[in-house]
């Protein structure tokens, strides 16, 4: 019973991080139909900058978090400008060029992290230290922050897209950028806001996971892969899709760790990819999306 409770706690906390990165993919897709492969880089840079500010310069955690959010938002805006560098405001970005551009930015961020922070893994500072027990499971307070943040941002993003002008403008620009431009919507500004918000979500994921998972310059690929899995499994067109997909992915990964020997660790990496293949073949729209006709 204690082991099962521990697995469930680990699944929720990891799934929350996957959901935060997946929400970034979802938001950019809803606003511009672009698959932003640089999403994992925001978590990498955000986690390292937060670590440097708090441990290297003794910046208070709230102030350091604010600085990280501002810098990550600027990085998101830069990403949007790179993606739409050669397009007109009323034209959608070329998807092939957008994917290649964001992939190149991911490699650049990875190289920059290596040059600035080196190859040695580092552990970031915790938002709140200490542990407590629930049904026999040892729960780290940092894990609680990971879970609560994922649910809170999912709810906030749902309300933002449904009830605010900017949220509705994002959906309109994704559906028909030319018509949105003719109606007076600044398509580029809307896209920049979407990329900035997605970068902030990625940075929050990096900040929250850094005290539990060691940060190194290659961790962006880990965030990117699991974020895409959460995004695709849950569904592309539903805000709650990445949350459901992330929690399911975290559960699948941690359940296999209960198997004895090295088999569980191997299955933890293989089975999620098999689940993704099955989803793409039989239900490509994701778990929450309506069936396509």
The main pleated sheet reads as: 2 strands, antiparallel
Beta strands, count: 2
Poorly predicted runs are none
Strand order of the largest sheet: 1-2
Question: Would you summarize the structure shown here?
Answer:
The protein is an all-alpha fold and 293 residues long. The chain has helices spanning 2-32, 39-56, 61-83, 95-117, 141-163, 165-175, 177-182, 187-209, 219-234, 241-255, 263-282, and strands at residues 131-134, 137-140.
Commentary on this structure:
With 293 residues, this protein is mainly alpha-helical. The protein is 71% helix and 3% strand. It contains eleven helices and two strands, in the order ααααββααααααα. It has a two-stranded antiparallel ribbon with strand order 1-2. Strand 1 and strand 2 (137-140) form a beta hairpin. Helix 2 runs antiparallel to helix 3. The longest helix has 31 residues, at 2-32. The radius of gyration is 19 Å and the shape is globular. The mean pLDDT is 85.
């Amino acid at each position: 019973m204690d082991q099962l409770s521990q697995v469930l706690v680990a699944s929720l906390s990891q799934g929350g991080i996957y959901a935060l990165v997946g929400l970034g993919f979802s938001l950019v897709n809803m606003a511009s139909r672009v698959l932003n492969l640089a999403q994992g880089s925001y978590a990498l840079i955000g986690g390292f900058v937060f670590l440097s500010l708090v441990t290297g310069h003794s910046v208070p955690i709230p102030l350091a978090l604010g600085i990280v959010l501002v810098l990550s938002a600027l990085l998101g805006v830069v990403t949007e400008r790179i993606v739409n560098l050669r397009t007109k405001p009323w034209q959608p970005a070329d998807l092939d060029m957008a994917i290649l551009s964001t992939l190149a930015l991911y490699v650049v961020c990875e190289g920059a992290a290596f040059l600035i922070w080196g190859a040695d893994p580092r552990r970031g500072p915790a938002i709140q230290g200490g542990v407590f027990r629930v049904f026999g499971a040892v729960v780290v307070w940092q894990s609680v922050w990971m879970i609560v943040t994922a649910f809170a941002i999912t709810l906030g993003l749902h309300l933002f897209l449904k009830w605010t002008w900017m949220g509705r403008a994002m959906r309109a620009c994704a559906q028909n950028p030319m018509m949105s431009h003719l109606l007076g919507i600044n398509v580029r500004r809307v896209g920049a806001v979407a990329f900035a918000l997605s970068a902030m979500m990625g940075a929050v994921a990096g900040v929250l996971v850094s005290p539990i998972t060691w940060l190194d310059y290659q961790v962006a690929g880990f965030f990117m892969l699991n974020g895409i899995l959460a995004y695709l499994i849950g569904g592309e067109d539903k805000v709650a899709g990445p949350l459901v997909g992330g929690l399911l992915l975290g559960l699948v990964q941690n359940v296999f760790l209960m198997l004895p020997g090295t088999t569980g660790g191997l299955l933890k990496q293989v089975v999620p990819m098999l689940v993704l293949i099955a989803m793409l073949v039989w239900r490509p729209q994701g778990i929450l999306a309506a069936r396509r006709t």
